[in-house]
Amino acid sequence: MNRRSEIYTQTMAQIYADQGYFHKAAEIYRHLIKEDPHNPVLHKALDDVMSHLAEHPEDRKADLTQRFSTWIDLLGRYRQLRMMRRMHLNPDPGSEGEAQRQKKGDLK
């Protein structure tokens, strides 16, 4: 499943935190806060998770690794989308799609 299509809930974030996966819990809380920025419970929960990460640098390293991995994944997707857009805007003249467009033009 695509990471961006996961369903995030406060309960899920709390379970991750309870199991020691503070970096994943923080990711979920950040996502939830974007959707509900005025929820003080979410802000408090994220503060608690971030406090734990500050007290335990080894967990912070895992958080950075997770963020870097996500960034690389998104960069790759962005490049694929750019390539697809270029292909769509500038199709190969020898492609079947271009040949069909030329035939339609001949019919007019």
Q: What overall form do the CA principal axes indicate?
A: elongated
How many domains? The number is 1
Q: Major beta sheet, specifics?
A: none
Please give the radius of gyration in angstroms: 22 Å
Q: Please, could you describe this protein's structure?
A:
The protein has 108 residues and is mainly alpha-helical. The chain has one domain. The protein is 78% helix and 0% strand. The protein has helices at residues 10-18, 22-35, 40-55, 57-89, 96-107. The longest helix is centred in the C-terminal third of the chain and has 33 residues, at 57-89.
List the helices and strands and how they pair.
Elements (H helix, E strand, L loop, with lengths): L9 H9 L3 H14 L4 H16 L1 H33 L6 H12 L1
Helix pairs in contact: 1-2, 2-3, 3-4
Short précis:
Helices cover 78% and strands 0% of the residues. It has 108 residues and is mostly helical. The protein has one domain.
Descriptive keywords:
108 residues; mainly alpha; 5 helices
